[in-house]
Design goal:
about 325 residues; mainly alpha; MetI-like fold; about 65% helix
């Protein structure tokens, strides 16, 4: 008669079905899962372990410094060459090989450029054109974007699609029709050549600015506007008291883009501003370039570039904040 050993069954816990997993099996499964998790966490070109090593840190800083210095030099060197070129004489500018530092630091060329080229008049004209274009852009583009975003008119999507389609057309293609429109304004028959209106109105008709503003207005909660409607506010009051105050980042971006575009434009002012007393700074410098020494011409270019550079450094953080604002909802 064989001896049988009876192993008592372990009591089952209420609510669980099937045999319980042994204690030895659970650590074994954890051991199998752990390497897979580590491989997913460090699946990169350079692992954190290699990057934290002494050799990895040296390579990382070498690559970082090389890339930053290279790109900075590529963008800053033309500006440096322009600023220092105005401090050289004409003989130093044509010298081969060129000198990177002027023999004598002087601002005489800048003073000559200011007096001989009448830059005060040219800069004043350009400031007038840029300021008027900024006002008309905010008045027209903001209201158009608000209507397309919140008022939702009939065929609003079609109108927006047609506006965006204009961005696919090269500017040179529509330059002749735009010139004919400015020369003989439809229905009214006005000739807007040699007037600021020839700069202001085309600058305000910008589909890209309307698209940026509409995308931002879409991110404004609808409940906020509905609460204002319950209080009795109309569409104009909602736009002025609610939408515009919360849209300062994108309004700053649109303002900067408009002012800079008008300030540096060349071809369109050359067509519509033929009067020498009403030229913009870019047209005035180009028209007098053949009569000026090279260092004086370079100095005038530096003076004409200073306003846009100052605007960029003052509002550079608003540019990125406004372009990314409204991209995410919620």
């Amino acid at each position: 008669m064989s001896n049988l050993t009876v192993i008592p069954e372990s009591p089952k816990r209420p609510g669980r079905s099937g045999p319980p997993a042994s204690a030895a099996a659970r650590p074994e499964r954890r051991a199998r899962r752990t390497p897979r998790k580590i491989r997913q966490e460090f699946r990169t070109v350079v692992s954190p372990h290699q990057l934290n090593s002494r050799h990895g840190r040296v390579i990382y800083w070498i690559v970082l410094v090389t890339v930053v210095v290279s790109f900075t030099a590529a963008f800053v060197f033309p500006l440096y060459w322009m600023v220092t070129g105005a401090m050289k004489t004409t003989e130093d500018l044509v010298q081969i090989p060129p000198t990177f530092l002027p023999p004598r630091f002087t601002l005489d060329a800048y003073a000559e450029a200011w007096e001989l080229m009448d830059l005060s008049l040219l800069l004043g004209n350009t400031a007038l054109y840029a300021g008027g274009a900024w006002l008309f852009t905010l008045a027209i583009d903001v209201t158009a974007a608000y209507a397309l975003s919140k008022l939702r008119p009939v065929l609003g999507k079609l109108v927006l699609a047609l506006m965006l389609a204009t961005l696919m057309i090269p500017p040179m293609v529509i330059m002749l029709p735009a010139y004919l429109t400015v020369k003989d304004l439809p229905l009214l028959g006005w000739d807007l050549l040699n007037t600021p209106w020839a700069i202001w109105l085309p600058a305000a008709a910008n589909g890209f600015n309307i698209f940026l503003l509409k995308r931002f207005f879409d991110s404004i909660p609808r409940e906020l506007l509905e609460a204002a409607e319950i209080d009795g506010a109309g569409p104009v009051r909602i736009l002025w008291s609610i939408v515009i105050p919360v849209s300062r980042p994108i309004l700053g971006v649109v303002s900067i883009l408009t002012v800079v575009a008008v300030w540096r434009d060349f071809v369109w002012p050359l067509l519509v501003l033929t009067d020498s007393e009403k030229m913009s700074v870019s047209i005035g410098i180009a028209s007098l370039s053949s009569q000026m020494p090279q260092n004086v011409l370079i100095a005038s270019l530096v003076i004409a570039s200073l306003p846009t550079i100052v605007v960029f450094f003052l509002f550079q953080r608003h540019i990125m904040a406004g372009l990314t604002a409204g991209s995410l909802k919620g």
